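can u do me a favor
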C-alpha cells in the first residue's frame, strides 16, 4: 500500500451551488491505477476536475498530503478548440505554461516538448497541425502535453474514446508502463468498463449521487454493477 497523496473528506461537488456529487470520501495513494466508471452524467468528469484543482468543493475538504504535488490532466479530446492552426509541438508546449508562466517564453523548453512527443511514440510529427492528425495521434499529443510537466499524478478523461481496438490497446499498454515502471499514479475515466477492469487495480464507481471506491474485485461485483448500471456483469 502506497502513501496517501490526496484525500477527499466529505466533499460536495457541483456547479453554481447545485450539488452533483455529495459526501465524497476518497483516498488516492502513490502508485495507484484507478479506474473511474459510472453511467453517463454520473459526475465522472466533475470528480476528475476536482482532483485536478480546477473545480473547488462546495463543501468539505480536499487534502494534499504531499507538498507541491504535480498533477497532469488530459481532458476529453472534444473539449479542445481545433479552430486555431496549432502544431502538435505547440499543443505540447501548453503543458509548460503552469511551470514557466503563461507570459514567459517556453523556447528553451522545446527540447522537453519534443522528448514528450517521442515518449508517446510521435517523434517526427512536431510540425504537423493538430487538427490534421488522426484521433489516436491527437490523444497522444494531449497525453504528451500532460507528461511534459513531469506529473506525479496523471488524470485522463475518456482517453480511448473513438479509438480503434489496436489504438486502445497501445494507449492502455503505455499507461500501464507509466504506472509500473515509473510509479506514476493514474486515474482514468472511461465508459469502457471491460478495458478499465483489465488494467486498473482500484475502481471508483459513481451513480445516482453515490461514490464508492475500493479494490477492483470488490467494486465490480454483480451486485454493485446491477445497482449502478442496471445489469450485472455478463448480463442476467
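np, heres the sequence
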Amino acid at each position: 500500500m502506497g502513501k496517501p497523496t490526496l484525500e477527499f473528506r466529505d466533499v460536495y461537488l457541483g456547479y453554481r451551488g447545485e450539488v452533483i456529487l455529495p459526501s465524497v470520501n476518497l483516498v488516492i495513494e502513490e502508485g495507484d491505477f484507478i479506474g473511474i466508471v459510472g453511467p453517463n452524467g454520473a459526475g465522472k468528469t466533475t470528480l476528475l476536475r476536482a482532483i485536478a484543482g480546477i473545480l473547488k468543493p462546495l463543501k468539505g475538504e480536499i487534502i494534499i498530503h504531499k507538498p507541491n504535488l504535480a498533477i497532469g490532466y488530459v481532458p476529453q479530446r472534444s473539449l479542445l478548440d481545433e479552430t486555431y492552426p496549432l502544431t502538435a509541438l505547440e499543443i505540447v508546449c501548453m503543458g509548460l505554461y503552469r511551470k514557466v508562466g503563461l507570459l514567459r517564453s517556453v523556447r528553451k523548453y522545446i527540447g522537453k516538448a519534443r522528448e514528450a512527443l517521442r515518449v508517446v511514440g510521435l517523434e517526427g510529427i512536431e510540425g504537423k497541425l493538430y487538427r490534421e492528425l488522426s484521433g489516436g495521434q491527437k490523444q497522444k499529443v494531449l497525453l504528451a502535453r500532460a507528461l511534459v510537466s513531469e506529473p506525479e499524478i496523471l488524470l485522463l478523461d475518456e482517453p480511448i474514446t473513438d479509438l480503434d481496438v489496436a489504438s486502445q490497446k497501445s494507449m492502455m499498454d503505455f499507461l500501464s508502463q507509466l504506472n509500473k515502471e515509473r510509479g506514476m499514479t493514474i486515474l482514468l475515466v472511461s465508459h469502457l468498463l471491460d478495458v478499465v477492469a483489465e488494467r486498473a487495480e482500484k475502481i471508483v464507481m459513481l451513480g445516482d449521487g453515490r461514490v464508492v471506491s475500493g479494490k477492483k474485485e470488490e467494486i465490480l461485483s454483480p451486485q454493485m454493477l446491477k445497482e449502478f448500471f442496471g445489469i450485472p456483469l455478463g448480463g442476467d
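The chain has nine helices and nine strands. hope that helps!!
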